[in-house]
C-alpha cells in the first residue's frame, strides 16, 4: 500500500541543502550523469534528497544526508529511487547490488508517495528489462509488483 508523506518546510530546506552540495561536488569533480540523463541535475539532486528525507520521516529513522557516499545506502540499509511522476516504475540498473533493497518514491517537494520496495536480485529479471530512447537499458519494476513498504524494516 502506498504511503503519502509531506515534508515540512524545514525538512525540504535541509534536504535541498544536501542536494546543492551533492551537485556542487559533482561539478567540482567533473562528473556527468552516468545514465544518459539530459535534464536539470540540480532538480534531480533536490528531488532525490527530498525522497530520502521522506522515507526517513516515514520510517522514523535518522537521515545522514551523506555526500559523495556512492553505493552506500541512502536511509538505514535502504536505497531510495525518487521519480517525478506517480505513474513511473522502480528503476534498478545492472551495476546495482543484488542484495540491496530499493524503494520507489514519487512526487515533488514537499509531497511524496512511497510505493514499495524490491530486492535488487528480484528486480533484475528479464521481463523487467527495458530501454527508452538512446539511454542505457535498465530494469523497470511496475508499482504493482513492489512489496509493501510497511514490511521493509531498516
Characterization of the model:
The chain is 29% helix and 23% strand. With 154 residues, it is α+β, with helices and mostly antiparallel strands. The protein has three helices and seven strands. α1 packs across α2 (41-59).
Topology diagram in text:
Layout: E1 3-6, H1 9-29, H2 41-59, E2 78-83, E3 90-92, E4 101-108, E5 111-119, H3 120-123, E6 129-130, E7 138-141
Features of the shown structure:
154 residues; alpha+beta; four-stranded mixed sheet; three-stranded antiparallel sheet
Structure described in brief:
The protein is 29% helix and 23% strand. It has helices at 9-29, 41-59, 120-123; strands spanning 3-6, 78-83, 90-92, 101-108, 111-119, 129-130, 138-141.
Q: What is the radius of gyration computed over CA atoms, rounded to a whole number of angstroms?
A: 15 Å
Overall helicity: 25-40%
Report the strand count: 7
Lateral strand order in the biggest sheet: 1-5-4-2
Main sheet summary? 4 strands, mixed
Query: pLDDT below 50 for ≥5 consecutive residues: which ranges?
Result: none
Beta-strand percentage? 15-25%
- State the distance separating the first and last CA atoms: 18 Å
